[in-house]
Amino acid sequence: MLLESRGDRVFNALIYLILGLVTIIVLYPLVFVFSASISDPQTVLRGEMLLWPKGINLNSYAKIFQNKDILSGFSNTLLYTSVGTLINLGMTIIAAYPLSRKDFVGRNWFMGLFVFTMFFGGGLIPTYLLIKDLGMLNSFWVMIIPNAVSIWNIIIMRTFFQQSIPYELQEAATIDGCSNIQILNRIILPLSMPIIAVMILFYAVGHWNAFFNALLYLSDKDKFPLQLILREILIQGQTSDMVKMSTESAIKQQREVEGIKYAVLVVANIPVLILYPFLQRYFVKGVMIGAIKG
Amino acid sequence: MKGSTLAGTLPETKRESKRKWSRIARNWQLYLLILPVVAYYILFHYVPMYGIQIAFKDFIATKGITGSPWVGTEHFERFFHSYFFWRLIKNTLGLGLYSLAVGFPIPIILALLMNEAKSAKFKKFVQTVTYAPHFLSTVVVVGMMMIFLSPRYGMVNHLITMFGGHPINFMAEPGWFKSLYVFSDVWQTMGWSSIIYLAALAGIDNQLHEAARVDGAGRLRRIWHINLPGIRPTIIILLILNIGSIMGIGFEKVLLMQNNLNMETSDIISTYVYRAGIQGAEYSFSAAIGLFNSVINFILLISVNWVTKRMSDTSLW
C-alpha cells in the first residue's frame, strides 16, 4: 500500500460528508412520517415535532382500523398481491427456461417477439378497448392478467439459468432419461431459489404498489386496492368519512385528518418495512444479474 | 470444382434443417411451456397494436374496431391544430429533458462516491437507506409531498415562515411543478438506479488502479480516467433507454400531482390522452394522440441507438 497523501485524506472526508448528507436527505422524510404518525397531531401541525415523536398518541391508528375502506383495500391488495405474484412467477419461469436453452430452436425469434413490446405498444386507448371487449372491466382478474409477466424479469431469470446452472448438468440428466419438464422441476428450480426470491420480491412490490390499472378498470369500491383508497385520502383529501362521526370543532377535525394521513402512510408500507431488511441482499443480487444481461 | 462444392453444400443444409426439426421435435415440451407466455404477449401487447388503427377511424363501439369507418388523418390534424398542442409538446418534452438532465447523472455520481468510500459498514448503511424509497408507491410519494408542502401545515412552509418568508402553495403553483416532479423522483430512485453502476464499477480490474497509482495518479484522476471509462458501456445503454422514454415520462406520477391550478405546466400528452380518451370517451381522437406520442418515442430510441452505435460501438441491438 502506498501512503495516503493529505489530498487523499481531504478527499476521503469530502466523500463521507456528501454521502452522509445524501443519507440524511433520504432518511429524514421517512423518519418524520413515522414519528408524526405516533405523535400528538397538534404538535406536528404547529411544526414543533422535528424528528422524534412528541406526545405519543395512537388515535390515528385506531381511526384507521375502524375504517372499512382501508380495511377492505388492505385485504384486496393482499389478495391481488398473492394471486398475482404466483401467476407472475409461473409465467416467468415457463418463459425463461426455454429461452435459456441453447438447443431451443427459435429462441431469438421468441425473444424478439417479447422484447419489441418494451419499445412499442398499442397505447392506453386500444388496450382499454381490448380489456373492455374481453369483458374484464371491473373484474378481479383485471388486476392480475394484463400484467401477467414482465420482460425484464424474464431476461433476469433467463440470465440466471444460463450463468448459474451448468448446461452439462442438463445434458447429463437428458442422458439419464429426464424429460425437459423433469429437468425443470428436479434440477433447475431447486437450484434457483435465490432468483425466485428476487422475482417474488419484485413482482409482489409491483402488485402492492399498483394503482393505475385499478383506476382505469375498476369501478366498485369494494374491489379497490389499498393504493386507490390511499389516493382518495392523501391526494384528494377525502377523509370526511373518518372524522364526521365526531362532533368536534372544524379545527380539531382538521388536526385529526392530518394525523390520519401520517398513520395511513405507515400502514401502507408496513409489509415492505418488515420484509426489507431480510430481502435486501436478494434484491441487490437480482438487479446485478439483470445488469449483466446476456 | 464448382459443381462439386455445390453438391457438397446441398446435402449439408438439408441435413442441418433435418437436425433442426429433430431438435424441435425432441424439445416439444419447451414449446408447450412457452406457449402461454406467447399467447399473453400476442393478446395483451400485439392485439392493442392492431387496435391502433382506430386512430385513423371513427370508432363506433357497436361496429367494433374493424367495422368502424376510415377517416384518414382527421384526428391528427384536429390535434395538431388544437389549442393544447404546443402546450402538451412543451410540457412533455420539457419534463422529460429536465428529468433526464438531473435524474440521469446523479445515480452515476452517487455510485462513484459510494465506490470510493472505504468503510464497508458505512457504505452498506448508505445503500440500505438510499434504496428504501424505491419500494414506496407513487401514491405514497406524492402523498408525502403534499403533506410536507401543504401551505398551512407542511413542515417546509413551517421552515419558510420560521426564517421570515411567506408560505408557498407549492402544489398549486405551475412554476414549481417540474422541479417538484424531478427532485422527488431523484429522492426516490437515485439509490436504486446506482446499483447497476456499482455493479459495473465492481467489475473494473484493480490492476488498472494499481498501475495508475504507481504512475502517480491521484484519486480524482483515477476516477476520471479509469472508473468513468470503465462504466461507459453501462452509462450508454441506460442513456439510450432513458432517452427512449422521454415522451413516456412518468404518467402515473404526473396524473397524481396534477390539479386544476398547475395544469398549465403539468398537462402532458399521456395525461391528456387519459382525460380525453377514458374520461371523455373520445377513443379515436385520443388513440391518435397516443400513437403520435409512441411514434416520436420510438423514433427517438432508434436514432439515439444509431448515434451511439456509430460513436462508441455500444448499442441496444
TrEMBL record, chain A:
It is found in: Cell membrane. Pfam families: BPD_transp_1 (PF00528). Keywords: Cell membrane, Membrane, Transmembrane, Transmembrane helix, Transport. The chain crosses the membrane at residues 12-38, 78-97, 109-131, 137-156, 259-279. The keyword Nuclease does not apply. The keyword Membrane applies. InterPro entries: MetI-like, MetI-like_sf. Residues 74-279 form the ABC transmembrane type-1 domain. Signal peptide: none annotated. It is a multi-pass membrane protein. GO terms for cellular component: plasma membrane. It comes from the Bacteria. GO terms for biological process: transmembrane transport. Belongs to the binding-protein-dependent transport system permease family. This is Sugar ABC transporter permease. It comes from Paenibacillus azoreducens. The lineage of its organism: Bacteria, Bacillati, Bacillota, Bacilli, Bacillales.
